[in-house]
Amino acid sequence: MKALLLAGGLGTRLRPLTEQMPKPMAPVGNRPWIEHLVRQLRDQGVREFVLALKHYPDLIRNHLGDGKKWGVSIEYVIENETLGTAGAIKNAESLLGDCFLVFNADIVQHMNIKPLIQYHQERQATVTIGLTEVEDPSSFGVVDISETGRIARFVEKPKSGEAPSKLINAGIYVMNKEALSYIPAGREVSIERETFPLLIEAGEGVYGFTMTGYWLDMGTRERYRQVHWDLLDRKLKLPLPGKEKTSGIWTGNSCRIGDGALLIPPVVIGNRVQIGDKAIIGPYTVIGDDCRIANNTRLSETILWDGCHVREGAQLYQCVFGFGSEIGSRHILYEAFAHRIKEEEEITV
Ligand code: GTP
């Protein structure tokens, strides 16, 4: 079964990190999330992928290529206009089979898809929506589901105590081709707001299947950080780069740790990282490849993407810095989210 990955959104809520890159390319533990996703689905038997792209598509295409490196085949559909979550599926119709998987590529998840596919086949559903249970459903679209597993309706952002369930759309679907006839071509269409309600109204079999395992939409700053803390706590069991030489401290190749530097677990340090003397790093800190952290610096609950430079004496708390960011000496920053603007040729080559 082919998997369609929706990766063309603008990622407005994660700006400025997503100003010049698609959200699914944001690293999770120093590796683009979309690469984790492809590897993980490949390990569950998916061999053919279609990627629907719009915002900075070359960054994804250049990274994943034709998929051979990962042992899969990848085709791309690039949109000229934003088509929305259903419009993007319709636009990829010619590359999809009779039954296919769809993933919102900005959802960080570690879930078993086989039971979802099996459920879809057993019910002979038109669409089966993977559901996940959340503690507080008030900021999500919640499903009203019957005992047979059929979805009756969606309730958007229910008030406390008025939610029909704690089950929300996980952004993972099994779809039959017939569902695409309900999506108008050539305009922006939301699958959550338009297509699913339309399919339900038409009496098509729209089922929900509750999935278990790790799930978090990384679309906001808080959740992007949370994904990392869950990764470091190993609640999210994706592979971490480097070797765990000391418990909770993963270190890459060719790193230099200065005299008197202190690493407080959990910490991930990429390849070729230089950490200066008396720097204090951690807890909950992820440092990308080729970063330079000067003497007497302090980093806590902070994520640095590749190539950042933290100058002498700077202190970073709960910060996220994009590729190649520079942090001036003796700056003290709390909850900073920053991205260095790239030249156009740096982005596309
Ligand atoms: P925000 O602007 O912060 O809401 O982010 P977003 O639009 O990127 O994410 P949203 O949660 O709305 O979208 C869910 C998934 O669908 C993400 O993986 C997006 O990349 C993807 N997506 C959203 N709109 C489009 C689109 O027009 N085309 C394609 N190909 N994918 C889309």
Automatic annotation (TrEMBL):
Pfam families: GMPPB_C, NTP_transferase. Residues 264-333 form the Mannose-1-phosphate guanyltransferase C-terminal domain. One of its GO terms (molecular function) is mannose-1-phosphate guanylyltransferase (GTP) activity. Gene3D superfamilies: Hexapeptide repeat proteins (2.160.10.10), Spore Coat Polysaccharide Biosynthesis Protein SpsA, Chain A (3.90.550.10). Its EC number is 2.7.7.13. The lineage of its organism: Bacteria, Bacillati, Bacillota, Bacilli, Bacillales. This is Mannose-1-phosphate guanylyltransferase. Residues 2-232 form the Nucleotidyl transferase domain. InterPro entries: GMPPB_C (IPR056729), Mannose-1P_guanyltransferase (IPR050486), NTP_transferase_dom (IPR005835), Nucleotide-diphossugar_trans (IPR029044), Trimer_LpxA-like_sf (IPR011004). Belongs to the transferase hexapeptide repeat family. The keyword Nucleotidyltransferase applies. Keywords: Nucleotidyltransferase, Transferase. It comes from the Bacteria.
